[in-house]
């Protein structure tokens, strides 16, 4: 159940191996989050890269990259099973029906609605977690809109988002640890996370991303941890943390492809939203 740590390996069905970031995976340019427990599937797409948990039936993390060219008008899309996931672990739209939770995007539809195929990919259920309705539709969505606004105004942003812990509140304020469902003819449970989190590196839209991250003022790190409950008493800025805080919560090591000293500086810095 949502267990992550640096000493574990991805499992691709034929044993365990540690994947490396391919040079053309712009969605994970600064490195995958740290290795996760076995029983997971790494999925690389144009829209995002993610790690899907067969135990929890949700992604452990989703990583993507946006700039102004990624956003447009889009077309209508609907939730669907991920064609690359085995039937024994594949969810469909109706697995969340009457659960009391929203189908919460990790990589948002609006971050990919300038490309029909990529927008459709954001609706695969591997990109979805059970999310409190008010959190998803207001506080979390306002954070998404903030980042989209920066991207539309000449920022380039590397983002990773995911769930943590177990136990969130449904639309009626009831605490639930899981959604009971049927997967491929067998009883199954979708883990309901206690938190949703997001980390990001924000910089001017230009070339030489690694060089700019290392420059003084070259990027602004953002980290947010929100409880999976009604968060509408506060706006998203109330939940700002450091990337170090998210690493402690999740056990993941973010942006590990950066030089250690640069990574340490960035991950200890708290985002100053007022400058934006």
What keyword list fits this structure?
276 residues; alpha+beta; seven-stranded antiparallel beta sheet
Structure commentary:
There is one protein chain. With 276 residues, the protein is an alpha+beta fold. The protein is 18% helix and 28% strand. It has 5 helices and 15 strands. The chain has helices at 116-121, 133-152, 209-214, 243-250, 260-268, and strands at residues 10-11, 16-17, 40-44, 49-53, 59-66, 102-105, 128-131, 155-164, 168-169, 175-176, 178-183, 186-191, 195-204, 220-227, 240-241. The strands form 5 sheets. Strands 3-4-5-8-13-14-15 form a 7-stranded antiparallel β-sheet. It has a two-stranded antiparallel ribbon with strand order 1-2. It has a two-stranded antiparallel ribbon with strand order 6-7. The longest helix is centred in the middle third of the chain and has 20 residues, at 133-152. The radius of gyration is 18 Å and the shape is globular. Residues 3-23 have low confidence and may be disordered.
Structure described in brief:
The chain is an alpha+beta fold.
* Sheet having the most strands: 7 strands, antiparallel
How much of the polypeptide forms β-strand, as a percent range?
A: 25-35%
Strand order in the largest sheet = 3-4-5-8-13-14-15
Task: Count the E strands.
Answer: 15
Helix tally?
A: 5
Helical/strand content category: alpha+beta
Order of helices and strands: EEEEEEHEHEEEEEEHEEHH
Rg over CA atoms:
18 Å
Helix fraction bin:
10-25%
Principal-axes geometry comes out as globular
Cα distance spanning the termini? 37 Å
Oligomeric status: single chain
Average of the residue pLDDT scores: 88
Spans with pLDDT under 50 lasting ≥5 residues?
Answer: 3-23
């Amino acid at each position: 159940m949502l267990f992550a740590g640096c000493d574990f390996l991805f499992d691709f069905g034929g044993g365990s191996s540690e994947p490396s970031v391919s040079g053309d995976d712009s969605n994970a340019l600064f490195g995958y989050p740290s290795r996760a427990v076995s029983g997971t599937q790494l999925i690389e797409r144009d829209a995002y890269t993610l790690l899907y948990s067969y135990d929890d039936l949700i992604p452990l993390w989703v990583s993507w990259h946006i700039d102004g060219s990624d956003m447009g008008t889009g077309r209508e899309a609907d939730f669907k099973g991920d064609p690359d996931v085995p039937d024994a672990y594949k969810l469909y739209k109706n697995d969340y029906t009457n659960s009391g939770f929203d189908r919460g995007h990790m990589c948002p539809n609006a971050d990919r609605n300038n490309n029909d195929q990529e927008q459709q990919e954001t609706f695969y259920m591997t990109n979805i977690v059970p999310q409190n309705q008010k959190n998803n539709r207001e506080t979390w969505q306002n954070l998404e809109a903030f980042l989209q606004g920066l991207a539309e105004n000449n920022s380039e942003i590397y983002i990773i988002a995911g769930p943590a812990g177990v136990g969130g509140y449904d639309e009626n304020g009831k605490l639930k640890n899981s959604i009971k469902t049927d997967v491929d003819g067998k009883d199954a449970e979708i883990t309901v996370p206690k938190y949703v989190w997001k980390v990001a590196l924000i910089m001017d839209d230009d070339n030489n991303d690694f060089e700019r991250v290392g420059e003084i003022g070259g990027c602004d790190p953002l980290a947010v941890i929100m409880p999976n409950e009604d968060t509408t008493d506060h706006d998203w800025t109330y939940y700002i943390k450091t990337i170090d805080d998210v690493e402690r919560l999740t056990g993941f090591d973010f942006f590990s492809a950066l030089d250690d000293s640069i990574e340490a500086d960035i991950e200890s810095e708290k985002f100053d939203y007022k400058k934006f």
